Amino acid sequence: MSEERRHRFEDHTGEVRLVLSAPTLPELFLAAAEGLAELISEDDRREVSSDEYETRVLRARDRELLLVDFLNELIYLTETRHRVLTDVQIDELSPGILRFRVRGVPIRRPRTAVKAATLHGLTIEQSAAGLSASVVLDV
């Protein structure tokens, strides 16, 4: 995990709030992916898969919706592939499009079942230090 890119969790009524900070928008999305992987599995997230990358493209009207769609796509891929996504690469991130690649390792020690990322309380804010975000995950 990057020294500058961070994530933490806050309890939220029946859910978990994922709080993120990073110097850039791509780093913020990567912090979200790392936080999700940590929440889903106790497996070593530094473990790298030998699998081929799976490429995905998402479109949304703004960066907040793109972040929620990104997290929901990662949740879907985790559920359907039965893998914790330990390697996420952002290839393109602009106001309305996200192109990324993922691969992961089998989940051996599950932690929390995450159902979805929600729009509840969703924010992405810019400051002199970079970006911060907050997104609620339905668990």
Q: What does it look like?
A:
With 139 residues, the protein is α+β, with helices and mostly antiparallel strands. The protein has a single domain, classed as Archease domain (Archease, Possible Chaperone, Chain: A, domain 1, 3-Layer(bab) Sandwich). Helix content is 25%, strand content 42%. It has helices at residues 25-40, 63-81; strands spanning 6-12, 15-22, 54-59, 83-94, 97-106, 116-117, 123-127, 130-138. Helix 1 runs parallel beside helix 2 (63-81). The longest helix has 19 residues, at 63-81. It is globular.
Topology:
Elements (H helix, E strand, L loop, with lengths): L5 E7 L2 E8 L2 H16 L13 E6 L3 H19 L1 E12 L2 E10 L9 E2 L5 E5 L2 E9 L1
Antiparallel strand pairs: 1-2, 2-8, 3-5, 4-5, 6-8, 7-8
N- and C-termini, Cα separation = 24 Å
- Gyration radius (Cα, Å) is 14 Å
Supply the CATH class: Alpha Beta
Global shape:
globular
Low-pLDDT segments, ≥5 res: none
What count of domains describes the coordinates? 1
> What fraction of residues sit in β-strands?
35-45%
Number of helices: 2
What CATH architecture would you give? 3-Layer(bab) Sandwich
Roughly what is the average pLDDT, rounded to an integer?
90
Task: Output the CATH homologous superfamily.
Answer: Archease domain
- The helical percent reads 25-40%
Largest sheet: 5 strands, antiparallel
Q: Which class best fits the helix and strand makeup? A: alpha+beta
Number of strands: 8
